[in-house]
Amino acid sequence: MLEKLKEEVFQANLELPRQGLIKYTWGNVSAIDRESNLFVIKPSGVDYQVMRAQDMVVCDLDGNVVEGELNPSSDMPTHAVLYKNFLTIGGIVHTHSTWATIWAQAGLDVPAMGTTHADTFYGAVPCTRFLKQEEIDRGYEEETGKLIVATFEERGLKPLEVPGVLLHGHAPFTWGKDADSAVMNAVVLEEVAKMNLFTRQLNSFAEELPQAILDKHYLRKHGENAYYGQK
Amino acid sequence: MLEKLKEEVFQANLELPRQGLIKYTWGNVSAIDRESNLFVIKPSGVDYQVMRAQDMVVCDLDGNVVEGELNPSSDMPTHAVLYKNFLTIGGIVHTHSTWATIWAQAGLDVPAMGTTHADTFYGAVPCTRFLKQEEIDRGYEEETGKLIVATFEERGLKPLEVPGVLLHGHAPFTWGKDADSAVMNAVVLEEVAKMNLFTRQLNSFAEELPQAILDKHYLRKHGENAYYGQK
Amino acid sequence: MLEKLKEEVFQANLELPRQGLIKYTWGNVSAIDRESNLFVIKPSGVDYQVMRAQDMVVCDLDGNVVEGELNPSSDMPTHAVLYKNFLTIGGIVHTHSTWATIWAQAGLDVPAMGTTHADTFYGAVPCTRFLKQEEIDRGYEEETGKLIVATFEERGLKPLEVPGVLLHGHAPFTWGKDADSAVMNAVVLEEVAKMNLFTRQLNSFAEELPQAILDKHYLRKHGENAYYGQK
Amino acid sequence: MLEKLKEEVFQANLELPRQGLIKYTWGNVSAIDRESNLFVIKPSGVDYQVMRAQDMVVCDLDGNVVEGELNPSSDMPTHAVLYKNFLTIGGIVHTHSTWATIWAQAGLDVPAMGTTHADTFYGAVPCTRFLKQEEIDRGYEEETGKLIVATFEERGLKPLEVPGVLLHGHAPFTWGKDADSAVMNAVVLEEVAKMNLFTRQLNSFAEELPQAILDKHYLRKHGENAYYGQK
């Protein structure tokens, strides 16, 4: 069942430690098959040295396990909510990568301060509020997904234009058209989180990137007339 | 004698440089056999390239060498005191890992500022006071152990709920149910020490993690109804 | 066509990730043949794992592709302007390396604070102003090159004495007599950007390097009577 | 001539990039044979990939080349002055390692803030003043050595008790009983330079290590009754 997608998700999970985004098993990647509305996700707490593609778990959009002998990542219900509400996305990544997590702990949006940011994120990466006691009691992981969706709605953000978010006190989620691009967006978020923190320290009056340059860099890669890369 | 435990302790010591926690021989791991009340510890100052499992030294809870031709780690008496007083622990790690040592030198507890912390430590990791001249004269390494035990008693902390401590002006000790989990706790402490320092720098008003989220993350992994990982 | 130069440019591009200057394909190196006034540059957005020497693209000084089936780096017109105006240079590198980019985002020149800087850069590395809307509309990449040239003219700097620049809100460009030295200058700029940021944090009164030491270090390597290295 | 010492010096030089202390050829290690009063040092600016043990250059204490076809490191006269004046040392290392160089650029002594420091350095690592124009004119490298010697005399420091120094605006020199221990001392200095910078940032009121703990840690490794390591 979904063997090709399992292989993609498996490989994308292995990419997390290679990119320095996680230690041990602290992270998870999933990807969805929009035909069947089923998604594939890493099992919970399995050592990356012994994990195999066939250990990936298949789930539906209500957060039920459809196939797989292992428990899915405990964050699986968050993924389900995101796939259900963000219809343009195909892959999701969750890590506790150092610098993005620092911004999440600080409870601050990551502002667009340079073209490294603008090449991937069309504006600031938002930070949510803390989850509340009643949300935690109702279902922590599912409510985490709902809070992300609500944050994007309130701010009028399109998920593929700003493919990531920080959970206050927790860590980042990123997404993309597939598992691989979700991982790449996690790498970019981590890098700009580091650069922007030290930019602020070096010059507390540093300005955000002017809108004209933000537009140029985002649109030359992602706009209708994009001319970056090969055809 | 205790060959299996020697192998575990040997492997756990090799994990320290792999995880970037130590340079040269600046660290030590031990593990205890609660049946015989004997523990196995790394020899002092032996190059990791030539060290073998059979070089591990066996000691009793009064800090006597029971078996082994090499001197045990000079911190051995600290380990003995911890095993004697913290009856739930099975392994101990001492490193001078960069970021945890920075907090130790600053003389500050590492507060719980995010879920990365809460997944492992149920609250702040305490920092002791400096050792005094008379304690150093009486026996530096043994008194180090006693100071850790006294710190946990004064604060009403359970060793397995907060599996680590900082010695003011010195460095961290961590522990766990066995040598491997003590190493993993050292990795987590190092990571949260780094993240929390920069969280404070990024936002000096950053709040500690709300109790409800601290409870949720700690208990979903370590509580009675834990559901993280596989059964 | 220019096969030897293609190989040099190809190898210099591979050096960027090895030196930790780039992630993914975020960077580009070129080199010029001053006989034919043609330069060779990396193709745009091609994975470094599959890229080959023959994939390098040949361009002229007006920014036309002369040979090659792939699109050149989108920054190619910047390279063309630099080669056209800086007649002493033979290679150019563009990266978004972390610490140099932090200074670019902060909009600050990197001052000469130590001999590591003076061994390569004969004074501060300048940071340009932001590009303006009308420049972006006229041709972003070409205008980037013109802004660099104008900045060097205004400040009376010689390109080989100060072989690098920061674009405000963007990232560094470095250059040199050939592709390899342009890469080495990118490595030095990244390192001094890191060191100078923390020097300022450690001691906000830290002085710039005295002129006498700046002269000594720059000239013992690059002056008429240089005596560093082998003959 | 001095083949064994050449091999030791060669291997110690290779250790510098392995320990992350240098990039390219920015560093040098030497060691002395006190019988003949000749020392062996790395040649200047030779790529570490092609350098061989027999390329090491033999010099005397007046800074003359006694054997070798390549130019010695341009810092050779500094080494000569140190060997001539610090009669207890057997090896010298010079690097521009990041964090030690940051303190050198800041013009500040590295204070003893923890036991990592105290295990190797018996007190603060001093930072010299800047060299003056007339000293540079007289002979930059030789005067660098004289300034180090004068700094140790003024402060009443013993070279083997405080086996390192920072040159203001430049970088560290470390030394030891042989080439290997000089490299190890360079590693320790780099690590404590990093830790102490961030300790100050985390807690600007952080105290230096109490004298009793400094004594204990230094002397248990280096004192008459040292008990660290194996006999």
TrEMBL record, chains A, B, C, D:
Gene Ontology CC: cytosol
GO biological process terms, semicolon-separated: arabinose catabolic process
Zinc found in the keyword field: yes
Domain Class II aldolase/adducin N-terminal: 7-197
Keywords assigned: Arabinose catabolism, Carbohydrate metabolism, Isomerase, Metal-binding, Zinc
Cofactor: Zn(2+)
GO molecular function: aldehyde-lyase activity; L-ribulose-phosphate 4-epimerase activity; metal ion binding
Protein name: L-ribulose-5-phosphate 4-epimerase
